[in-house]
Design goal:
Layout: H1 3-16, H2 24-84, H3 88-110, H4 114-134, E1 137-139, E2 152-159, E3 168-173, E4 176-178, E5 181-184, E6 186-192
Helix pairs in contact: 3-4
Length: about 230
């Protein structure tokens, strides 16, 4: 056997020999490296999942913001239309009264008797009154009642001796209520008679939508001073 053949045989024998078992420190190091690699992979996956969750949440928030902005714009348009056309139903019914006024004016140009014109105007006045009543508007009955600053506006005061003090003697302009709430004060003349004490006005019934704030007697500052 030659020297070369002997060397090749030794190399083959060395190659076929099993690898030496790793020592305990080496095995521990390998296990630690494998564990660290697995933990790093799990951490990267968690980070990726978290980033995706943030992206999904951001998308949801943007969609919610867009939906809310669209809702706000629709509400603004609806509110504007509600304000703009709130009186549409009332004005539509009022047009019937206006039509009758036009007919009365046309008829008045051809009428030969003033009573004919007066009758037509009276009918229209009654129609207008019925229209206002249906809408919750009612006139005040101020004459002869105790002066009430919540309903009346005193423009004249007259010294008298036969009626109680602070009594409404005359009504210059009629006042009106809308569903129990004053929408126009009555313009009145009030009696001044210290010899007969004033009669306290009756408390007004508060509208259903307003808080009840009635008193048994008017404050001293509410009376009309001479």
């Amino acid at each position: 056997m030659t020297m070369e053949q002997s060397s090749d045989q030794q190399a083959a024998t060395a190659a076929e020999a099993p690898a030496p078992e790793p020592t305990a420190p080496q095995q521990a190091a390998q296990d630690g490296a494998s564990s660290t690699f697995d933990e790093a992979g799990a951490l990267r996956q968690r980070l990726a999942d978290r980033d995706q969750a943030y992206l999904d949440l951001e998308g949801q928030l943007k969609r919610m913001a867009a939906d809310f902005e669209n809702f706000r714009r629709r509400q603004a348009v609806e509110r504007e239309n509600l304000i703009k056309f709130a009186g549409e139903r009332i004005l539509e019914r009022f047009l019937d009264v206006l039509d009758n006024f036009e007919r009365a004016l046309t008829a008045g140009e051809k009428a030969t008797e003033p009573q004919q014109v007066l009758t037509g105007v009276s009918l229209i006045y009654r129609q207008l009154g019925d229209f206002l009543t249906k809408e919750g508007v009612e006139p005040m009955d101020a004459k002869g009642s105790p002066f009430d600053p919540n309903q009346h506006e005193a423009v004249v005061q007259l010294d008298v001796d036969d009626v109680p003090d602070q009594t409404v003697l005359e009504e210059f302009r009629k006042g009106y209520l809308l569903n129990g709430r004053v929408i126009r004060h009555a313009m009145v003349k009030v009696a001044n008679n210290p010899s007969i004490p004033a009669i306290p006005p009756l408390p007004m019934e508060s509208p259903a939508s307003a808080p009840e704030t009635t008193t048994d007697e008017p404050a001293a500052s509410d009376s009309v001073q001479p």
